[in-house]
Task: structure prediction
Amino acid sequence: MISRHADPPHALQHLLTLEGLPRAQLEALLERAQHYADVREDRSVLAGSAVCTLFFEPSTRTRMSFQLAAQRLGAEVLNFDASTSSTSKGESARDTLRTIEAMGVRGFIVRHQHDGAVAALAEAAGPATALINAGDGRSAHPTQGLLDMLTLRQAKGEDFSCLKVLIVGDVRHSRVARSDLHALRTVGTGELRVCAPQALLPEDATLEGCTVSHDLDAALEGVDAVMLLRLQRERMQEGLVGSLHDYHRDYGLTSARLRRAAADAVVLHPGPVNRGVEVTDEVADGAQSLILRQVGNGVAARMAVLEALLGSR
Ligand code: CP
Result:
C-alpha cells in the first residue's frame, strides 16, 4: 500500500505495493498518468528537487523511464549503480540510502533482489523522504502494475468489469504478476484467469479469485487481454521447467493460439521478452501487441507517482 505521513494530512509518503491501495487512489493515479501521457511534461512540479534511482538489480525500462519521468517534472536525477559504488567495499544498502539522503535527495526509486528490502529501507529513511519500490524480489513492482492498468484502460476503456484477463507464465517468481493481480482486483476486473505449469504457480494467496489452468488453449478462449510473464530464469531452481522448448510448446503464445482469444484481444508483456519462449516474434511484434505502448506508458505512470509522492514537498 501507499503509506501515509501524518504531516501534511493525507500526503503520500512511500509506494511499496499496490496491495491495499484504495480504488479511488489507484484510479486517481491512473487519471494523472493519462494526463501526463497527453501533456508529456511539466517541469514546475519537481523543480528544485533531487531524486535518486537506487538499483541493486539490473533494469532497462524501469530505471530509464523513472529518469525521464523525473526530468520531465523538473527534478535533478542521480543514478546509483551498485557495481561501481561503495557497496563493493561493504557499505550496506541502509547506509547508502542515508548517505545520499544527507546530500538533500528526498526521492528514492529502489530496486532490490530481496523481498521486503525496499520496505526495510523505507523504515530507515527520514520522515521527509519518499521511497518508490521499483521491484523487490518476487513481491511487488507497483509502477509496473500501474502502467499495465493504464495500457489496458487506453485499449479497452475504464470499465474493467466486462473484461476477461488471462495471465500466463511464471507467476511464482513474478513481482509483476502480484502487482498486476492486486490492481486488476481493485479496479473490478470481470474475470481473472491464470495459466502456468504447476511448478510455476505460487503456493500463497496470490491466485485468490483466479481461475487456474494448465491448458493454454482452453485458458485463451474468449479473453480480452493476455498478460504474458517473462520466464524468470535467474530466480528459478533447476528443474521447474523441463526445457525452454517444452515450455514454448505448452505455454508459448503463437498467432494460432491467439486466435482463440477475442478478435480484438490485446497482448501485454512487461519485458524483457524471451522471444521464442513465452511468445513468438510474430505475436510480440504484431498488431495486437501493446508491449511498446506499455514501455511508453511507463514514463507517464511514473510521472504520476513521483508527483503524488514528491510534488507537494
Ligand atoms: N519490466 C521491467 O521491470 O523491466 P526492467 O527490468 O528492464 O526494468
User: Anything to note?
Assistant: The radius of gyration is 19 Å. Residues 1-10 have pLDDT under 50 and may be disordered. Residues 59-62, 135, 144, 270-272 surround phosphoric acid mono(formamide)ester (CB under 6 Å).
